[in-house]
């Protein structure tokens, strides 16, 4: 499709810079340009574009469209796969041949709304701990990343008739933190960090759901940790429903992520560094990979 459109845009007998684009080209190079728009023809700024050489499968160019939806790259002559993605919209992949010595007119590419999964039925859904994970990644100051998780928690989702009015709540046992290093875990449980003796739980309670298109939502709510409450937005992808599990009960799944700033909840990390406490950096990436069971009179009790 793209190749045919490009051919129609190319003037007969053109050489060098052609077809409405006046750009300098290195010797023997060509150029690819595109204009990303939505189904209403509105420009899509910040759409992600990846151009990959089909023969070597190497990424030749990567970037985002400008505020007017345009992207352009200078490339060696070859056949390429061009992938455009944007939040809430279905990705588009096209194949294009880039000739030498030509800057082709930008190709207009339309991204349609993403397929919306059927929402879970209204009612109460309980987290299934063996199939749910609460993980985090924090950068060790000046070194590699620390990966960890909480192993004890409980929670649920109340799905309302209007999805935006739904609610989710999670209670995490702070002492269940584990990073694979007992010395570090004991330090994270201490008063320097989570202070689990005085603040045994980490709680999240939602206030509203905001639809972002496709299967994407933002779950707004309050996170309480270390005696401090802050507003947090969880970037959430709904993964659908299925019958399965212990007794083929109805289940739904979602993946939620957020970036937390540790200074919002614990001691100032700079003061810790001054005291020689260099464990994790100032930001923490949090991910909740949730699977929940629809609650009925015969739903099995989720194991601990």
TrEMBL record:
PROSITE patterns: PROKAR_LIPOPROTEIN. It comes from the Bacteria. This is YceI family protein. Belongs to the UPF0312 family. Residues 124-293 form the Lipid/polyisoprenoid-binding YceI-like domain. It comes from Streptomyces chlorus.
